[in-house]
Amino acid sequence: MIALSPTAGRLQVFRLPVPGCFRLPLLLVMALWLTLAGTARAAPHAPSDIGRITARGELVVAVPSFDAPPFFFRRNGELEGVDIELARGLAEALSVKARFDRRGATFNAALERVASGAADVAICKLSRTLARAARVRFSEPYLRFNHALVINRLRFAEIAHGQDLAKVIRHYTGSIGVIEQSSFADFAVRNFPSASLVTYRDWDAVVAALKRGEITAAYRDQFEIDRIFKLDPRMALTLRTVTFSDLEDTLGIAVAPDSSQLLSVINLFLSQRREKLTVESLLKRLDEARP
Predict the structure, then answer these.
(1) Better pLDDT: 131 or 40
(2) Residues 6+ apart with CB under 8 A from 277
(3) In this predicted structure, what is the pLDDT of residue 25?
(4) How confident is the model at residue 291, as a pLDDT?
(5) Are residues 266 and 198 in the same domain?
(6) The dihedral sign for the CA sequence 18, 22, 27, 30
(7) Which of 184, 177, 219 is nearest to 200 (CA)?
(8) HSE-up (13 A, CA, CB side) for residue 275
(9) Position 13 in a domain
(10) Alpha-carbon distance 41 to 85, whole Å?
(11) Which pLDDT band holds residue 184 (cuts at 50, 70, 90)?
(12) Rounded CA gap, 156 and 168, in Å?
């Protein structure tokens, strides 16, 4: 054994005798120390998808450039809304900050930001569809809506000829307005194959066409249909709604196909959230979102 002792400002080396009975245990201790040191050096790092986010210090969240209160909207220069709160909560759970990427002009464009790797997640009232699931991976739903139609009463009477509403809707052959390249454009093809599909650039244009009688019905989720009457109760005089209890629109968080660990974290994060969103609570939030 070697011991170092300072003497007169310099180090001197002394050889100390080590009894034979202690040599083997000492070797074992040294071997154990080397093994533990090697194990520490070989400890696995964070998975690559999580590692990219923590190294950057930011969770990049794709949100479309338009406003959709109460989900995401800008007020007094600040981005607010249900989905914005959700994104910031997720970022906090990952011990990073949220940075919002609003370069996409549509829901699908926001999703493509994730698919291309430009954003980590898309949190923006994004419906889970088969076509979108071919591009990204979706979390478990954080919100569920029934499908619904809003119908122009006068136009519908022209095609119903006194028949029962349910019967006409079941075999609907009239016109349906939807947002172009939206989830409900896909749903309409599958759920109303005999209908005449008319697409518009955004939901405001769909509703305006419905009011003018250019189309007989507009198709979207229950919240957006109820929102029409919430904002203008007089619409009940000319429009009516049909809600489908057997058709469901589920909203999820989109991640890149290779972000399996991030997806696991998101699903756990969603399952532990206390607030459970409903159509009623969102309509209340809609009032709060007004200027």
Answers:
(1) 131
(2) 82, 142, 143
(3) 53
(4) 66
(5) no
(6) negative
(7) 177
(8) 11
(9) no
(10) 38
(11) very high
(12) 9
Instruction: Please tell me the pTM assigned to this model.
Output: 0.81
Computed over every residue of the chain, the mean pLDDT equals 87
Start-to-end Cα distance in the chain: 80
Same domain, 154 and 206: yes
Give the CA radius of gyration of the chain. 30
Amino acid, single-letter form, for residue 232:
D
- Specify the residue for token string 């244009």: 205
Please give the helix or strand (H or E) that residue 204 lies within, else none: helix 203-212
Answer yes or no: do 133 and 275 share one domain. Answer: yes
* Domain count of the fold of the chain: 2
Domain that residue 85 falls in:
48-142+252-289
Neighbouring CB atoms inside 10 A of 202's CB total 13
253 burial (CB, 10 Å; 0-12 / 13-18 / 19+) is buried
Residue 226, burial from CB neighbour count under 10 angstroms (0-12, 13-18, 19+): buried
Please indicate, yes or no, whether residues 133 and 261 belong to a single structural domain of this protein.
yes
Residue 106 is assigned to a structural domain of this protein: yes
Asked, as a colleague might, if the bond just before 70 is cis with ω within 30 of 0, I would say: yes
Query: 20-76, pLDDT tens digit by residue?
Result: 544 445 444 444 444 444 433 433 566 799 999 999 999 999 999 999 999 999 999
CATH of the domain at 178: 3.40.190.10
| Closest C-alpha to 81, from 105, 98, 57, 103 | 98
Structure tokens at 277: 């969103």
